Every structure is written in structure tokens, then in C-alpha cells.
UniProtKB/TrEMBL annotation:
<protein>
    <submittedName>
        <fullName>Zinc ABC transporter substrate-binding protein</fullName>
    </submittedName>
</protein>
<dbReference type="InterPro" id="IPR006129">
    <property type="entry name" value="AdhesinB"/>
</dbReference>
<dbReference type="Pfam" id="PF01297">
    <property type="entry name" value="ZnuA"/>
</dbReference>
<dbReference type="InterPro" id="IPR006127">
    <property type="entry name" value="ZnuA-like"/>
</dbReference>
<keyword id="KW-0732">Signal</keyword>
<dbReference type="InterPro" id="IPR006128">
    <property type="entry name" value="Lipoprotein_PsaA-like"/>
</dbReference>
<keyword id="KW-0813">Transport</keyword>
<keyword id="KW-0479">Metal-binding</keyword>
<comment type="similarity">
    <text>Belongs to the bacterial solute-binding protein 9 family.</text>
</comment>
<dbReference type="InterPro" id="IPR050492">
    <property type="entry name" value="Bact_metal-bind_prot9"/>
</dbReference>
Amino acid sequence: MKKYILLVALLTIAGCKNKSNKDTNGKLKVVTTTTMITDMVQNIGGDVVEIQGLMGSGVDPHLYKASEGDVSKLFNADLVIYGGLHLEGKLVEIFEKMESQGKKTVAVADAIDKSELISSEFFASNYDPHIWFNIGFWKKITLHTTEILKEQDPEHANIFEKNGAAYIQKLDALETEIRQIIETLPADKRILVTAHDAFNYFGNAYGFEVMGLQGISTATEAGVQDVQELSNFIIEKKIKAIFVESSVPRRTIEALQSSVNSKGHDVIIGGSLYSDALGNKGTAEGTYVGMFLYNVNTIVNALK
Ligand SMILES: [Zn+2]
């Protein structure tokens, strides 16, 4: 009898352990934060994992607060994948609490060596978190995420491996294509003025000088002084176009535009760029690859 009870207890423990890695429908339950991360994990995980993205199109991760529903999604997940470097500034405490409880959380920024990151005193983590704008980084992050998924769900390791490799190929093709598009823009016109400092990795990787009206995070507003300085810069460099961002209110860039125009230089709003969130689901810009191409085409066409 005693032996029987022990066996039942062991089976129950084994059952629980199994359950902690898999959902009741047998799928690994992954919760992601930004749309860029959700898209990448979907590319690697395919339909063998269940992915829930917390943030939708047009959502600013710097300001995003978790709802009660989000908190329960996070705590019920088998695996949580987020950006890190305080990109999701208001979720940091939740992630810390989850880690202290032994929940599996992964910051994709950990795939990049700190020496490759842009240091910034303006941001809480001391590093610029907009790492998805370097496609080389995104490839490293894809490899890292593939390994994590294989660890968490070894049964589907082959699928993750195959999907991950296919996604890297897509990213390689994207990089070749955007470099060709950028080549058509004269080097002295490669100056990008946007609403907030999201594009510094993009600038470093693809040869643009980048000026953001707000700091690294949208949590800090641009002051009158910032607008004045940047408008003088635009006039001095004879810049044709500046850009709004889909996840940041237009008003700061519109204020900059009127400041420039009032000084007698015409600057247009060259379009709306996707910075911290992808476009609508089901559209080309709703994917990382489509978003990147859209941004580069918009920038190059407006600055030509
Ligand atoms: Zn940002």
C-alpha cells in the first residue's frame, strides 16, 4: 500500500513537471512583448508553439503598462520573451518578480554582447534598447531564440532549427535589398530626423546620421530648446524631409516642422516610420521584414 502511494505521488510530480513545460493542448505556451519579437518567435515556432503577443500595432513599449489580464498571461506562460535593456520600462518589476519565482523569462538583448551596444546615459539600463534596427543583431537574436525554444521543447527541436535557418535566410536577403536601396541615396543626404531616438543602431549599421527629437525613450518630452536646436540643424544641412513614427504622437514632429518653416526653410513630413511597433497584422508592414523595407523605402524616397 505504502509503495502504491509513493508511486502515485511520483507520477503526480512527474505530471506536474511535464505540465510546467507544456500547455494542456500539448503546445509550449510563449508570451512575447513587442510585435517585432512576436513576429520573430512566430517565424521560428510556427504552429507547434502557442504564442501570445502582449502589445499590438502602434503600441509604445516604453509606456506600456500591464493589465491584470497581461499579468495572468505572463505568470501562466511556460516561457516569456521580451526585449530587455528597459525597453519595456513599466514591466521591469513584473519580470523581476517572475524571475525570483523561477519563471522562465528571456530578454532578447542578452544575445548581443554589451560591447556592441550603444551606451546612453539617457536610458535606465544605460544602453539603447532599439536593437532590432540592426539586422545583424536580429539574426543573432533569432539564433539565440531558436536555442531557447529547442531547450524548452526538445520534441520539436528539428522544426525550430529548420524554421530558424529559413528566417535567417530571409533576414540575409532583406539586408542585401535594403543596402541596394540605400545606395541610390547620395551619402550627404543620409540624415534621418525622427520623433524619438529609435534609429541609432540603424544609422550606425547603414550609414545614416540620426537625430531624434525626444531621447532614447518616449517617456521624456522634447523641450523648446531641443526644437530650436534641431530646426537650426535641419536648415543648416538643407534637409528635405523629417519623419513621424507610428507609435509616437505626431505633435512633436509637427512642432519641429513649423519651427523650421517659420525660419523660411521648407521641410516636409516624409512619412510615418515604424519604430517601436510593426504595422497592422495581415499587412506587409505587420512583419519585421516588411516593416524594415517600408521604412527604408519611405526614408530614401523622401530624402532623394
Ligand atoms: Zn523607442
